[in-house]
Amino acid sequence: MELNLIFAHFFLAVLLFFALNWIGNHSIHAGYIRMSVLAKADEAPAFNFLYRAFSPVAYITVVSAISYMLQQDWIVTDIYFVVVYYFVFRLVFNLATGRGKLLNWVTQVAYVLVSIPMSYYVYDTLIVHKEFLFPTAKELGSAVWLAIVAYTYHTFNSVKLSDERTKARKANYLQDRYVTYENLYGEIIEGIAETKRQEALIYAVLIVEAFNRPKLYRLIENLLFYFGFAKTLGIMQVTTERYINDEESVRLGATKIVEDHLQAKLKVEARRYPGGSWAIRREVLELYNPDGEYIREVDGLYDEIVSQFYPEEKTDWEAEIEESNRPRQNDEEPNKSSQRYASEAGASA
């Protein structure tokens, strides 16, 4: 295979990788599950499997048709290698960004075993023959089978699979990340956080930010910063006008969260928002990153961190109930006064 053909196929594979991620992120309403540090139930298992396994096949088919139309037939030669390069790049990318422990390896192998052979089959039976662009009446008659396939897809997509393995995998990842960051930045965070809950929230933001901006991304950002193309740096993605490393990023990010906590508390109390500490925490996260999906992910991770690493801390609703049942000082004073007046009246009588 010529070098220019290998380069073209690899470029198409990288393009496929980013295209599928972009389309998937905009297909969450259809049940698409994107990689996350939170354990989420797969509400559409058939859609997610078919999307990841058969989208590469559809991709090389479309690219082949466009190449034929542009009279660039050389790109179509052995184009099924695009799918091979795609899965190799996908694996290397996830391992390089520290997401290997989040991968379901059984499912990943299933994607490869389905997608690559199917790509070669489509290439050998359809793509190498240009006639596949112009289906005959007999081929159009196979639409009945497509309807059967669609019905089968809908049936399997309604099946809800157990998410116990996913939860265990995410819990192991959280354990690994928390222990790693506690060893690296624990003294900094403990010295800044005023409460254990603030400490847990800082770790939640730290883990999510590190997941969204892995080491490879941050190295590229450091280079772009010197050319004025990057404004957020470090593992906690702090906005800065000067260069900072990961340790300084954690110090600045943790300080911001603690300072914003007081501001958020005053805002919630002034406007009488319902939700107590939950509302305060969401205000803090909104000041850090206003994206709704980001806030939900960090908030969910915060609950898991408190449950797993801070069991002595009560959950929000437990704390609220305990606070509501605690006698207030203002209520105790009138009771004491009435008892004193009753005693004096009895003495006078």
The helix content, as a percent range, equals: over 70%
H/E element order: HHHHHHHHHEEHHHHH
- Tally the helices: what do you get? 14
Known CATH architecture of the largest domain: Orthogonal Bundle
Spatial strand order of the main sheet? 1-2
Rg, nearest Å? 28 Å
Number of domains: 2
Shape: elongated
End-to-end CA span: 113 Å
Largest β sheet strand count, sense and barrel closure: 2 strands, antiparallel
Beta-strand share of residues: under 5%
Number of E-type strands: 2
Mean pLDDT: 78
CATH class of the largest domain: Mainly Alpha
Low-confidence stretches: 328-349
CATH topology of the largest domain: Lysozyme
Structural class, from helix and strand content? Answer: mainly alpha
Can you tell me about this structure?
The protein is mainly alpha-helical and 349 residues long. The protein has two domains: 3-157, no CATH class; 164-325, Orthogonal Bundle (Lysozyme). The chain has 14 helices and two strands. The chain has helices at 3-25, 45-69, 81-96, 105-127, 137-140, 143-157, 164-192, 196-212, 215-225, 246-271, 277-288, 292-309, 316-325, 329-348; strands spanning 232-233, 238-239. The longest helix is centred in the middle third of the chain and has 29 residues, at 164-192.
Can you give me a brief rundown of this structure?
The chain contains 14 helices and two strands. It has helices at residues 3-25, 45-69, 81-96, 105-127, 137-140, 143-157, 164-192, 196-212, 215-225, 246-271, 277-288, 292-309, 316-325, 329-348; strands at 232-233, 238-239.
